[in-house]
Request: fold
Amino acid sequence: MQKIFILILFSILLSPAYALNPHNVTFGEIKAQGKIWGIDVSHHQSTIKWEKLKTQKPYFIFLKASEGATRQDGKYSENYKAAKKLGILVGSYHFFTYKSSGKDQANNFLSVAKHKSGDLPLVLDAEFARKMPANRLVGNELITFINVVYRRTGHYPMIYCDYDYYKLYLKDRLHTKCKLWIVDYKSKPDCKWTFWQTTNKFKIAGIRGNVDFNLFNGTKKKLKSILY
Reply:
């Protein structure tokens, strides 16, 4: 009886529901599970040792391209070329601020962000700040940013945010035009998400310190279907 109980317990622990904790995950676990996963980085990760990263190669990587109306990430071009060289799917994101117009920020983003055939969707990274402007103003500037990107590229950007932010500023105005990349470090998002950032404490070879970990909601084939 004791042996049977141990076997049952062991099988439960290895089942898909228990085998992966997305908020405290290791490379060995995601490899064993066959998850479609990736990371996002910026100049904050300093110099990435790409040859080491190749040993734990992610399926995709999002790179910070710009911030606000004038700032551009100093590591963006270098990281873009290195990731493409390794055959990693690449996307580019813009960190939205509340000190300049959505139009100016979109123009800054598109002046540096690459969106070539085979790349992942461009991303608008929109987050709560300590002091937020009026809701209507925030929503208007975000929509302006999105519309500028759509007019100039023919594609709607994906939105990175937590779901409360999306509901407050964008849901009623966007409907289903933009794919969602939801950040939630506590539980699985209760919405239709394309990417889910589960933790900012992932460890991977080639990058010093912690890095953000993201899961794709689907198969490799589905991931390729959303590329430019």
Observations:
- The first strand starts at residue 37 and ends at 41.
- The beta strands are 37-41, 60-67, 71-72, 89-95, 123-125, 158-161, 180-183, 195-202, 211-216.
- Residues 1-19 have pLDDT under 50 and may be disordered.
